[in-house]
Automatic annotation (TrEMBL):
Residues 59-387 form the Enoyl reductase (ER) domain. This is mannitol dehydrogenase. It catalyses: D-mannitol + NAD(+) = D-mannose + NADH + H(+). GO terms for biological process: lignin biosynthetic process. The lineage of its organism: Eukaryota, Viridiplantae, Streptophyta, Embryophyta, Tracheophyta. Its cofactor is Zn(2+).
Length: 394
């Protein structure tokens, strides 16, 4: 085994999963990293970045100015054109987990255009379309980082906002004019793919794409159930269609039937509270992706899986309860997933561009961000807000 010299360690944060009322959100806890593994510089002092930030647990966003760190040799600096609005923005701006560090600039679904690159950068050039997702650093040395699964870094990924980077600075997200990120955590957005559409893929998209690929939900002719039809669920339906799956949407609201079938292209729509509709699908599904935010029973859905079927949880109920017999007798699997690594993220972006997969979005100016967060809490969005940073943040 390779030995390392004794190193000074800097305290940063590692991932802990908490359940919140809309989707899986990431919280942080302290953990050590060897300082030499990161080449990060401190923030400069010229107030070079415009943003909107929350200053207290009310979560109210208002204009804010701060300084991004200077460009490092391995860094990419990009002008942000668009940023998706995720429920994590609500959780952190309102200090739901008690760890928010104010002023807090949210946003981890970032799309933009490269304005400058460091001397060692080879993957990107000025003018390229680039995305940044839920994390901006990791140890780059553990088994998961080496496999392109940096979000599961043993020593903890550094999250795009409200995280603490190795230089001790608090990370600030995409509700801002530009960002500086190590090239490893940047993703090439194909030139023919709209930047506004790319933004939600960096969290919502990759959160459903990753488990679909891991559990081989890309086999044409197989059957997929999607529980919940929000920001994550509608993208699971679109991916399922692109993979050639037979897609059934489950929702508590009959009002979503027309859009599920006609806009998103699902094959079936089932009102999950209708016992007869549910019983008619007994042991018929190969896979289920559960994106539902509220508490709900699991046994009725597990009974819909075929033998060796898989249910993946990406939503955030406060608890998960099911009868052991429902997985023992059917040899079924219950799994979980959050976001994805750099390898899967780039693959997903390329796949979406090649197959014409676009999230359903509502583009808004930054000045509407507070109203958007309130509407998001009420689930009043179809199906993802995207902030037009380029044309509204002045």
């Amino acid at each position: 085994m390779k030995t390392r010299p004794k190193q000074e360690c800097i305290r940063i944060y590692s991932c802990v999963v908490h359940w919140e009322s809309s989707t899986v959100c990431l919280c942080l806890r302290r953990q050590s990293h060897p300082a030499e593994q990161f080449k990060m510089t401190s923030e400069s002092a010229d107030g070079n970045c415009l943003a909107w930030a929350a200053s207290d647990p009310s979560g109210l966003l208002s204009p804010y100015k701060f300084s991004r760190r200077a460009l490092g040799s391995d860094d990419v600096s990009l002008n942000i054109t668009h940023c998706g609005v995720c429920y994590a923005d609500v959780v952190c701006t309102r200090n739901k987990f008690g760890d928010s560090k104010y002023p807090l600039v949210p946003g981890h679904e970032i799309a933009g255009i490269v304005k400058e690159v460091g001397s060692n950068v080879r993957r990107f050039k000025v003018g390229d379309h680039v995305g940044v997702g839920t994390y901006v650093n990791s140890c780059r040395d553990c088994e998961y980082c080496n496999d392109g699964l940096e979000v599961h870094c043993v020593r903890g990924a550094v999250f795009t906002f409200n995280g603490v980077d190795v230089d001790g600075t608090v990370t600030k997200g995409g509700y801002s004019s530009h960002i500086v990120v190590h090239e490893r955590y940047c993703f090439k957005i194909p030139d023919n793919y709209p930047l506004a559409s790319a933004a939600p893929l960096l969290c919502a998209g990759i959160t459903v794409y990753t488990p679909m690929m891991r559990h081989k939900m890309n086999q044409p002719g197989k059957s997929l159930g999607v529980i919940g039809l929000g920001g994550l669920g509608h993208l699971a339906v679109k991916f399922g269609n692109a993979f050639g799956l037979r897609v059934t949407v489950f929702s508590t609201s009959i009002s979503k039937k027309e859009e599920a079938l006609n806009l998103l292209g699902a094959d079936k729509f089932v009102v999950s509270s209708d016992e007869q509709q549910m019983m008619a699908l007994s042991k018929s599904l190969d896979f289920i992706i559960d994106t539902a935010s509220g508490d709900h029973p699991f046994d009725p859905y597990l009974s819909l899986l075929k033998t060796a079927g898989v249910l993946v949880l990406v939503g955030g109920p406060s608890e998960v309860k099911f009868s052991p017999g429902n997985i023992l007798m059917g040899m079924r699997t219950v799994s979980g997933s959050v976001a994805g690594g750099t390898k899967d993220t780039q693959e997903m972006l390329d796949f979406c561009a090649a197959h014409g997969i676009h999230p359903e979005i509502e583009v808004i100016p930054i000045q509407y961000a507070n109203e958007a967060l309130e509407r998001l809490i009420k689930k009043d969005v179809k199906y993802r807000f995207v902030i037009d940073i380029e044309n509204s943040l002045k």
